[in-house]
Amino acid sequence: MKTVLTLFIMTLIVQPTFSRINTAEGLRFNNDEIINGVDGDMNGTGPHMVFISLVFPDNASGPTGYYRRNCSASIIAPHILLTAAHCFGLDKSEIQKIESAEIYFTLDINKIKPIPFITRKFKTHENFNETKAIYKSDIGYLDNDIALIYFVDKLPKGYVPVDYQKDDDSFLLGQTFRAAGYGMQYDHNDVRTNLSSSIGKLMSTKLKFDDNFPDQQIFKTHISASQTTTAICQGDSGGAALIKNPDGKFKLVGINSSSGSSELCMTGKSNFTRVALFKDWISATIAELSR
After folding, report:
1. How many Cβ atoms from other residues are within 10 Å of residue 140's Cβ?
2. pTM summary value
3. Is CATH 2.40.10.10 what the domain over 4-289 is classified as, yes or no?
4. Hey, where are the domains in the chain?
5. Judging by DSSP bridges, how do beta strands 28-29 and 198-199 pair with one another?
6. Cα torsion 196, 198, 199, 205: sign
């Protein structure tokens, strides 16, 4: 499902994937391939990334009914995940309905049964989505699209936090980077595979940031990347835009936020929350959630 924003061109939220479930039903893994991407584990982004599933009550399905919003997230500290605020909902009333967040670690997923970490501690940015839409049919422009999740469990073997950008990020303009996430998957015949209740394989794709920041009156907390062969897609929400340091280690510089991509996520402009703008908020929120 995609929600449309209008700003001279059509811009789409990189929506989470959705599913309705019974409390006894868990998530399963799916190993299909994404178009124009590479295996995130093999590319080196795997140790920093997780799949998250946010669980909401669904009264229409009965007393044991729930629905999920599935997204991607990055590990930035031993007990902290960084993701997009819109994964939790577009307004405070929706965000307050979340019952829990399930965190799935997907390295070596074929060797173990996926047992998630479960937490109820998270925070979305106080001013998320504050830029009002130009047209009544729009839902806003996802400024301050950032959230943190806290979990008490120890990181599984093989996982390590990724460093994130904390100072001026203007050097990113025109730079190549990798966008990683658990977005919509495809089979070998390019037919869309419904993964609403599955955990797709972590994938990443090589993109290039535009030479200029987008309209700072509208997308005032974003950096964009226009491409002709691929784009971030549903389920990539909350995933990471990463650059590689000279030492070969990744640094997280953006959060997958919104996209003006085509139906098959093959072309379009992708927008990423600029992590550097939220250095102080991240530090203060980590301290708050860790109490």
Report:
1. 18
2. 0.83
3. yes
4. 4-289
5. parallel
6. negative
